[in-house]
Design goal:
This protein is α/β, with parallel strands linked by helices and about 270 residues long. It has 6 helices and 12 strands. It has a single domain, classed as Nucleoside phosphorylase domain (Rossmann fold, 3-Layer(aba) Sandwich), CATH 3.40.50.1580. Strand 11 and strand 12 form a beta hairpin.
Amino acid sequence: MGFLIGASHLTPMIAILVAVRQELRPILKRAEANHVVRQTHLDFHEGTLSGQPVALLALGVGKECARIAAETTIRCYRPDLVISAGFGGGLQDTVRDSDIVIGTEVLELVGDDGNQVRWQSVHQLSRHRDLNITDDGLRVHYGKILTVEEMILKSANKKRLGKATGALAVDNETSAVATVAAAHDTDFMAIRCITDNDHEDLPGEFNDFFILGQLQATRIISACAQRPKVVWDLARLGYRAKHSGRNLARFLETAVGQLHFPALAPRGF
């Protein structure tokens, strides 16, 4: 059973789940979370962010990694709130790279044959109403987040999905975490920072860079050797990811400090 050192049983606890280390590192720089605890195969960083007890985790890419990690998180920490956060692709021309999207509804893609897009609503969200972000350095949007099985690589497909669903951002984990949180009656938020715009293509090899949700350096090196343009594409994405990671961490630090929780009963650890 995980337990945050120094945290009262009556203190609200937040679990923040991201997919990869590139998303987690900037958050760790703003948090005081040096205590690492391994739960099954996952390394949780325990501590505080904006004075709020948190457990931070990079869970891996994809819905199955997200589902397993969310189940482990709730079983071990019983958080009062789970935040699914990280990078996302833009689906509308009003949303640009480095913008923050706060989810108001989580959608899951059910089918897409190129002509007809089918999706379902997984979760309606209300926690965003707590937030009043006035940081002039952040562009913040409220809207739907769409979860898909694999990253959407072609701009034409991003625009088509955006038009069909009305979603602002697309990712690979949010709906899985939302489903687990709902099953355990745990409060939930979804936050994405945009790294690729709706009019931009991603490298065609991008989905192949991951095995079991983890980025594989050898596959990246192989792709770059076979097609040198991939180097430029990845350099652009790397620059975007660095800036978006800082924006995401900055936003989370502010947001966590604004959240309100009802009176809590003892956790019974």
